[in-house]
């Protein structure tokens, strides 16, 4: 049963109650009215007729012979009474009255005829009116008793009707109260449930569904609302998952940035500080987020330096002129560049762009600083490397200009000039190779089957004067059945000469150099071992970077820092690998591989 039907039935019940009470009251009033009318018609009318008859009899008693009009009124009233007989015994009294009235009329006629003959007898004439009066009183008494009896019965019926009507009104009131409490409650209770569920939904609690206890309109509303809650839960779940994913993605991006990130609101309260910035400031995130920047700057010098540009009249100029922040990080020297950016947001309510805060970032520019330092060192090294052979060439050229110089001495000086010229050519060639690689031109290779024994022989012959100059012993360990490798002869020989030159440079006088070659799976491996000071493990990869130079006790030892970088490029391009195995104090072994000819 739907709610509309319930309400209609409630109103119909109320209407039936009202109609029932009204109908009963109308019926009771009609009964009382009918009773009163019957009493007035049957009894009270008879009493009034009796009074008329008595007045007529009184007149007759005063003028018994002459008052024929009184007799006529009496007869008229008696005839009316005869037509209104309603009580038991009343008809007999009326009949007696008629008989006496007839005698009275006859006597009056006789009296009128005898009046001419002599005086009338008073006793015979006056006895009949008094008899008529007694009968009239008897008739009135019958009607008066009936009137009293009927009035009492009417009063009893009225009391009974009042009691019944009171009972009906009481029952109707109780039923109306029941309907008034049940029907509105039937309408309001589901609304309360709906309101409570809506309050929970407004508070983002979509678990409070409405029980489906009926099939009426509220039951339909409950089912529709529960479906909406289910869809909202699914939407919220998907939305929360998306938001969590986006938040985690944003948090991971912020947390994995290699830059220190600080977010301030428009009142300079700290909203966000990523782990890099917390590490740089030496403060946990709990002591940063939510605190005023003005308080934190008093506790941390680096934070104070970061906020200085915000207080400058010309912030952009202050940021541009701000020096690099020098920070000691994990025992190493690091340089950070400060950047400041305003945050703005478009307010749809005011349709204006509003300032909402600042973003401050600390970018680690240590690598650029190091590159700048490497560039400076490279320029100084190249200048030194160019100056030394040029000075030697200039000096030896002046010696050649002296005609007194003996011929054998001239030959020796010419050899020095040739060596220094070759040194300059080698340096220029390295620079040209680097410029070609940086320009993306790549390395032009002439790969063909190559005997590495021939490459080793040519390379060792080339460095033989340097070996002799430092009295170094060369140990060659080459198997007779060494297979050919796919290699560029010129580039591979250049790599081996560079490795031998480095080994000679760092080997002590009189030490031994070992050059060995062996088959390593699908590759041929060539190694150059020296007994120099060795290289620390943390520098094994650094030495293959451009312009890299490692200091020793006597400082940097010549070289442009490009040889090993170019050598690795040459070997890698041919499909091989170049690496070093070394420890401090134990010498170094540089090895490279090349693929075997299939």
From TrEMBL:
<dbReference type="InterPro" id="IPR050351">
    <property type="entry name" value="BphY/WalK/GraS-like"/>
</dbReference>
<dbReference type="InterPro" id="IPR036097">
    <property type="entry name" value="HisK_dim/P_sf"/>
</dbReference>
<dbReference type="InterPro" id="IPR035965">
    <property type="entry name" value="PAS-like_dom_sf"/>
</dbReference>
<keyword id="KW-0175">Coiled coil</keyword>
<dbReference type="GO" id="GO:0030295">
    <property type="term" value="F:protein kinase activator activity"/>
</dbReference>
<keyword id="KW-0547">Nucleotide-binding</keyword>
<dbReference type="GO" id="GO:0045121">
    <property type="term" value="C:membrane raft"/>
</dbReference>
<keyword id="KW-0418">Kinase</keyword>
<dbReference type="GO" id="GO:0000155">
    <property type="term" value="F:phosphorelay sensor kinase activity"/>
</dbReference>
<dbReference type="GO" id="GO:0005524">
    <property type="term" value="F:ATP binding"/>
</dbReference>
<protein>
    <recommendedName>
        <fullName>histidine kinase</fullName>
        <ecNumber>2.7.13.3</ecNumber>
    </recommendedName>
</protein>
<feature type="domain" description="HAMP">
    <location>
        <begin position="185"/>
        <end position="237"/>
    </location>
</feature>
<dbReference type="GO" id="GO:0005886">
    <property type="term" value="C:plasma membrane"/>
</dbReference>
<feature type="coiled-coil region">
    <location>
        <begin position="90"/>
        <end position="117"/>
    </location>
</feature>
<feature type="domain" description="Histidine kinase">
    <location>
        <begin position="381"/>
        <end position="598"/>
    </location>
</feature>
<feature type="transmembrane region" description="Helical">
    <location>
        <begin position="6"/>
        <end position="27"/>
    </location>
</feature>
<dbReference type="InterPro" id="IPR003660">
    <property type="entry name" value="HAMP_dom"/>
</dbReference>
<keyword id="KW-0597">Phosphoprotein</keyword>
<dbReference type="Pfam" id="PF02518">
    <property type="entry name" value="HATPase_c"/>
</dbReference>
<dbReference type="InterPro" id="IPR000014">
    <property type="entry name" value="PAS"/>
</dbReference>
<dbReference type="GO" id="GO:0000156">
    <property type="term" value="F:phosphorelay response regulator activity"/>
</dbReference>
<dbReference type="Pfam" id="PF00512">
    <property type="entry name" value="HisKA"/>
</dbReference>
<dbReference type="InterPro" id="IPR036890">
    <property type="entry name" value="HATPase_C_sf"/>
</dbReference>
<keyword id="KW-1003">Cell membrane</keyword>
<keyword id="KW-0067">ATP-binding</keyword>
<keyword id="KW-0812">Transmembrane</keyword>
<keyword id="KW-0472">Membrane</keyword>
<dbReference type="InterPro" id="IPR003661">
    <property type="entry name" value="HisK_dim/P_dom"/>
</dbReference>
<feature type="transmembrane region" description="Helical">
    <location>
        <begin position="165"/>
        <end position="183"/>
    </location>
</feature>
<keyword id="KW-1133">Transmembrane helix</keyword>
<dbReference type="GO" id="GO:0006355">
    <property type="term" value="P:regulation of DNA-templated transcription"/>
</dbReference>
<feature type="domain" description="PAS">
    <location>
        <begin position="246"/>
        <end position="291"/>
    </location>
</feature>
<dbReference type="InterPro" id="IPR003594">
    <property type="entry name" value="HATPase_dom"/>
</dbReference>
<dbReference type="InterPro" id="IPR005467">
    <property type="entry name" value="His_kinase_dom"/>
</dbReference>
<keyword id="KW-0902">Two-component regulatory system</keyword>
<dbReference type="GO" id="GO:0007234">
    <property type="term" value="P:osmosensory signaling via phosphorelay pathway"/>
</dbReference>
<keyword id="KW-0808">Transferase</keyword>
<dbReference type="Pfam" id="PF00672">
    <property type="entry name" value="HAMP"/>
</dbReference>
<dbReference type="Pfam" id="PF00989">
    <property type="entry name" value="PAS"/>
</dbReference>
<dbReference type="InterPro" id="IPR013767">
    <property type="entry name" value="PAS_fold"/>
</dbReference>
<dbReference type="InterPro" id="IPR004358">
    <property type="entry name" value="Sig_transdc_His_kin-like_C"/>
</dbReference>
């Amino acid at each position: 049963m739907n709610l509309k039907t319930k309400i209609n039935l409630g109103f119909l019940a109320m209407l039936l109650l009202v109609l029932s009470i009204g109908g009963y009251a109308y019926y009771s009033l009609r009964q009382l009215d009918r009773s009163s009318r019957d009493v007035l018609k049957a009894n009270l009318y008879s009493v009034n007729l009796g009074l008329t008859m008595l007045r007529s009899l009184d007149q007759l008693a005063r003028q018994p012979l002459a008052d024929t009009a009184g007799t006529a009124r009496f007869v008229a009233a008696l005839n009316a009474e005869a037509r209104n007989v309603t009580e038991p015994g009343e008809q007999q009294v009326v009949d007696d009255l008629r008989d006496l009235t007839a005698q009275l009329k006859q006597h009056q006629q006789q009296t009128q005829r005898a009046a001419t003959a002599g005086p009338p007898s008073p006793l015979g004439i006056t006895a009949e009116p008094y008899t008529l009066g007694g009968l009239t009183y008897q008739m009135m008494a019958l009607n008066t008793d009936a009137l009293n009896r009927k009035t009492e019965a009417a009063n009893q019926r009225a009391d009974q009707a009042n009691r019944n009507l009171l009972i009906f009104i009481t029952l109707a009131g109780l039923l109306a109260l029941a309907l008034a409490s049940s029907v509105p409650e039937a309408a309001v209770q589901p609304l309360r449930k709906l309101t409570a569920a809506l309050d929970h939904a407004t508070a983002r609690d979509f678990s409070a569904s409405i029980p489906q206890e009926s099939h009426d309109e509220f039951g339909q509303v409950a089912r529709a609302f529960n479906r909406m809650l289910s869809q909202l839960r699914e939407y919220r779940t998907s939305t929360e998952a998306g938001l969590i994913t986006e938040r985690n993605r944003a948090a991971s991006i912020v947390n994995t940035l290699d830059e220190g990130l600080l977010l301030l609101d428009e009142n300079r309260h700290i909203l966000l500080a990523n782990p890099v910035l917390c590490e740089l400031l030496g403060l946990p995130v709990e002591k940063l987020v939510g605190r005023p920047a003005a308080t934190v700057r008093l506790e941390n010098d680096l934070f104070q330096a970061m906020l200085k540009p915000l207080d400058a009249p010309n912030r952009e100029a202050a940021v541009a002129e701000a020096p690099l922040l020098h920070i000691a990080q994990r025992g190493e020297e690091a340089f950070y560049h400060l950047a400041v950016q305003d945050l703005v947001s478009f307010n749809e309510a005011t349709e204006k762009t509003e300032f909402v805060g600042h973003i401050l970032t600390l970018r680690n520019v240590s690598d650029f600083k190091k590159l700048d330092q490497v560039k400076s060192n490279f320029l100084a090294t190249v200048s030194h490397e160019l100056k030394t052979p040029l000075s030697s060439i200039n000096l030896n050229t002046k010696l050649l200009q002296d005609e007194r110089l003996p011929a054998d001495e001239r030959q020796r000086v010419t050899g020095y000039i040739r060596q220094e010229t070759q040194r300059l050519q080698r340096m220029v060639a390295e620079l040209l190779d680097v410029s070609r690689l940086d320009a993306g031109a790549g390395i032009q290779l002439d790969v063909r089957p190559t005997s590495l024994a021939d490459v080793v022989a040519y390379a060792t012959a080339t460095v033989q004067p340097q070996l002799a100059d430092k009295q170094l012993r060369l140990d060659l360990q080459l198997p007779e059945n060494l297979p050919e490798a796919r290699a560029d002869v010129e580039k591979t020989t250049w790599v081996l000469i560079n490795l031998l030159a480095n080994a000679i440079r760092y080997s002590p006088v009189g030490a031994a150099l070992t050059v060995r070659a062996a088959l390593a799976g699908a590759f041929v491996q060539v190694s150059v071992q020296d007994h120099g000071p060795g290289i620390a493990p943390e520098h094994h990869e650094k030495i293959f970077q451009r312009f890299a130079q490692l200091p020793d006790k006597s400082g940097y030892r010549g070289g442009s820092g490009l040889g090993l970088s170019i050598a690795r490029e040459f070997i890698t391009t041919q499909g091989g690998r170049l690496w070093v195995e070394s420890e401090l104090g134990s010498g170094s072994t540089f090895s490279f591989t090349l693929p075997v000819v299939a």
